[in-house]
Structure prediction request, 262 residues.
Amino acid sequence: MTVFQSMILGIIQGLTEFLPVSSSAHLNIFPWLFGWDNIPENFDIALHFGTLLALCIYFFKDWISLIFSGYKNAFKKEKSIEGKIFWYIVIATIPTGFLSIVLDKISERFLSGMLPIAIALIVMGILLYFVDKKMEGKKSLEDMKLKHGVLIGISQALAAAFPGVSRSGITITTARAFKFDRTSAAKYSFLLSAPIILAAVLVKVTDFVFNLPFIIGLLTSFISGILVIKFLMKYLEKGSYKVFAIYRIVLGLFILISIFFK
Prediction:
């Protein structure tokens, strides 16, 4: 892994982790297209560590509010929206983590290669397009019920099973299917992803190799991740997910054509 490759892959991770376009797909596509070596597992975790830091920094005030409100909700019986959302995230993370481990093992055995990624990009792009277009999206996080929080959370596990689905893509689509507005869907999706990414980082932390490519990848994924979150939260005040759905479909078709000619 060269410094140049680590910088490019770090930027790609930061750009695609939070947009509903699948970071795993892009991290597979670039080495495949340019003949680079496969990404080492410890470097992949470094990239995710960078985007985890971006999540923590951007939503720092939200996390502090969620944690303290969750404590007050549980031990002082003080009800609040933040306290409710905190416990929804905690409850949803438990089955999601278990399912992700199981489905990831199945995926490694049966769904390797670029073809499943291309299919997942196209199928999820079509779903995102029609769900986002058809649902009015009048609900905010205030309106979220436990069943919504848990089902949106569990949907993350599909991203572990099918590379190319996208963690943010599937959770945002599920939230939109429950008629949550676009900004609330994105925010809950981002907050949900943090515990799962943190768990993956902690499991592999002993494998970290703090060399220059590792540090460059971490920093570039962190910086680009922060910028993308800021962009998306602003964009969704008026924009839709249509452009990302179309991008997914076009990218999936490009991969299929590339497979044919290769």
